[in-house]
Design goal:
Length: 309
């Protein structure tokens, strides 16, 4: 499959508007990244954690104005994520509300995005992640590597009459099917919320670049995250696996390896999987001490695993 002119619509995405006099301070203390240092017009990745360091929400946080933010989440239960975001509001002057008619998030390869920017006449005018006024209803342009190669998330409005023109341009490219999208992200080692990043696993099990600021001070879950960082190890790590199964593997299915005495030892559980022409591939949470070179057994299927780098 060529990656030159591909795109994918994140159908389960939703966006919260967070605003108020205390919005910056509250989000800074609630999320893992340094919100206070985020310039107006730019975005960063950030997670909301439990006090135990497990993921309750994973966001692209776009700072619209001094005290106004848009938090885009790829999936999960909207009410549950919103409740988690609001949990520590006491006397804070901040509101966190779902945008009822959110922008559509379209992930494009760099090549297709460059063509779109050129036709929208914004190619040389991008000075922030908030897009300038343009003819294709693009509201934000977020650089994002979701599938192992550089790309962009475009935030656009389906209710804007200009969306039809953007749809026409997209039709010149190749729309990824959902299974193609997940095969690419799994094979390239890109975990997402809530499939692999969720409240069952420490955020630090998965190597997600740029999501944690270790110099920002306190936030919910920070004590656990920093304790893990100081020790240089988590008890479990996210790994890619492949096996000769003829169907996708169910979540929480155990993985085993065979010991020298012939006994089977459980080393982890499946987090997600998809079926390919060569068998099932997916992510699993596996004990750090497990031997990467040892064959694994998942049900009746045999396979291998490798750590995410």
């Amino acid at each position: 499959m060529t990656q030159s002119l591909t795109y994918y619509t994140l159908a389960r995405s939703f966006i919260f508007c967070t605003e108020g006099k205390d919005a910056t301070r509250y989000l800074h203390n609630r999320l893992t990244n340094d919100i206070k240092k985020l310039p107006v017009g730019y975005s960063c990745l950030a997670a909301a954690l439990t006090p135990q360091g497990k993921t309750e929400g994973f966001f692209t946080c776009l700072r619209e104005a001094e005290s106004s933010y848009l938090l885009q989440c790829d999936g999960g239960n909207c009410d549950t994520v919103q409740s988690a975001l609001r949990r520590y509001i006491v006397a804070d002057r901040v509101s966190i509300n779902l945008i009822e008619h959110p922008d559509t998030i379209i992930h494009c390869s760099s090549q297709l995005a460059a063509r779109i920017f050129s036709l929208a006449e914004i190619e040389g005018a991008i000075k922030s992640h908030c897009a300038p006024e343009n003819s294709l209803s693009i509201k934000a342009i977020i650089p994002r590597n979701r599938l192992g190669f550089d790309g962009f998330d475009l935030w656009v409005s389906r209710t804007d009459p200009r969306f039809a023109e953007l749809t026409h341009i997209l039709s010149e490219g190749e729309q990824l099917r959902e299974i193609d999208y997940h095969q690419l992200r799994l094979s390239s080692g890109k975990p997402q919320f809530p499939d692999e990043l969720n409240d069952s696993h420490l955020l630090t099990e998965a190597p997600v670049e740029g999501i944690i600021s270790h110099n920002k001070g306190c936030y919910v879950g920070q004590e656990v995250i920093e304790r893990v960082a100081s020790r240089g190890a988590t008890p479990r790590l996210l790994a890619r696996f492949s096996c000769d199964s003829k169907e996708a593997i169910s979540i929480d299915t155990p993985l085993f390896t065979q010991q020298q005495d012939g006994s089977m030892e459980k080393i982890g559980v499946v987090c997600s999987s998809v079926l390919t022409s060569n068998g099932a591939v997916g992510f699993a949470s596996i004990r750090r001490q497990a031997n990467e070179s040892a064959p694994i057994l998942i049900g009746e299927s045999r396979g291998t695993f490798s750590w995410l780098r």
